[in-house]
From TrEMBL:
The gene is truD. InterPro entries: PsdUridine_synth_cat_dom_sf (IPR020103), PsdUridine_synth_TruD (IPR001656), PsdUridine_synth_TruD_CS (IPR020119), PsdUridine_synth_TruD_insert (IPR011760), TruD_catalytic (IPR042214), TruD_insert_sf (IPR043165), TruD_pseudoU_synthase (IPR050170). The keyword Isomerase applies. It comes from the Bacteria. Responsible for synthesis of pseudouridine from uracil-13 in transfer RNAs. The lineage of its organism: Bacteria, Pseudomonadati, Campylobacterota, Epsilonproteobacteria, Campylobacterales. This is tRNA pseudouridine synthase D.
Length: 349
């Protein structure tokens, strides 16, 4: 996989370390609606540690003796982290859940609602991440760069987590799509298709970011024929470049995840997009925001520990690690963020 490029890359890399551990990487899911307090569904605000969302669902499924499909959830959260998210079950299990105990799962609170939680029922995710080995000067640089990115926009790449711990999944995805590998398992096939689509999106975004850099622009360069999305999720291709609406962040350019039943760009934007398209792919296609704008950035520096905690909110489906890459001016991999046994950073706490 080629390097993810960023518009606001620093002249000199900012060297810091972060680790995906329960104490250093925290995620809070932000609900997209207010729960009514009445209804046939029980909404659980839960905290999990060192578990995937699927692991957690399986534990509740076994405890309640119900199919996993009967448990609603809004999004998949990191395993190697402390994460808080919402799930839903039938309200008839309310009394039973009062006795629930698991060392890696805690029910923070519950409330009733007339609707179950469904995939996508979240507005954003808020992250709190510890950055290690940060000196006083770099602490200031990190905050300055972070706020600049929040103002100008962050390329909305899929992060390294999307593609597994090595490039094997990308290779398998391409082999399957091109007919060189037969995959019978439906879930694995769907997973590999999503990796294939995500790889093409990232390659397209990299090309557009490089065009922006070559044009010496400080914000993502839009083109005639780009497809934009508004605040309500409606897609459009304006006849003239919507410069004013783009500057006001009312319209955001999107990129293609190839497949069927999806709008494709036009004119100059399409000339670039078609290089990263696959019009023969029969799976559902999508449009994804090309850029996002991190919000509510907070930085707290602990000089004695050379530790900077950075907190921020980003839209659902976006990657906190991509924001950190843009700040640092370099790419990370799963190997980079996995702490070694008895790591020195743990000893400094």
């Amino acid at each position: 996989m080629r390097k993810r490029e960023y518009i606001d890359s620093v002249d000199k890399e900012i060297n810091f370390k972060f680790f995906q551990t329960p104490t250093d990487f925290m995620v809070d899911e932000m609900a997209s609606r207010t729960f009514s307090g009445k209804g046939n569904y029980l909404i659980l605000h839960v905290q999990k540690v060192e578990l995937t969302t699927w692991d957690m669902i399986a534990i509740f499924s076994e405890y309640l003796a119900i199919p996993a499909q009967k448990i609603g959830y809004a999004g998949l959260k990191d395993k190697h982290a402390t994460t808080r998210q919402y799930i839903s079950v039938d309200a008839s299990y309310e009394k039973m859940l009062k006795r629930f105990y698991h060392k890696q799962i805690k029910i923070l609170n519950t409330i009733r609602d007339s609707k179950s939680i469904r995939m996508g029922d979240l507005s954003a995710n808020r992250f709190s991440i510890n950055l290690y080995f940060v000196d006083n000067i770099d602490a200031g640089r990190i905050e300055k760069v972070a706020r600049k990115i929040a103002k100008n926009g962050l390329p909305n790449y899929f992060g390294y987590q999307r593609f597994g711990r090595d490039s094997d999944s990308i290779k398998q995805a391409k082999e399957m799509i091109h007919g060189d590998l037969f995959v019978e398992d439906t879930k694995l096939k769907s997973f590999l298709v999503s990796i294939y689509q995500s790889t093409l999106f990232n390659e397209w975004l990299r090309e557009r970011v490089n065009l922006t850099i070559d044009a010496k622009e400080s914000v993502f360069k839009i083109m005639e024929g780009d497809i934009f999305v508004d605040e309500k999720g409606k897609l459009s291709t304006p006849k003239t470049l919507p410069i004013r609406e783009y500057k006001a962040k009312k319209l955001i350019p999107t990129g293609l995840l190839p497949g069927r039943d999806v709008f494709r760009a036009r004119n100059g934007a399409r000339e670039i997009e078609k290089e990263f398209d696959d019009e023969f792919l029969q799976d559902k296609g999508y449009r994804r925001d090309a850029i996002i704008f991190p919000k509510d950035i907070e930085c707290n520096y602990v000089r004695k520990k050379t530790l900077l905690n950075i907190s921020f909110t980003i839209t659902k489906g976006s990657y906190a690690t991509v924001f950190l890459e843009s700040i640092a001016g370099k790419n990370y991999s799963a190997k980079d963020v996995k702490p070694k046994a008895k790591s020195s950073h743990l000893a400094r706490k």
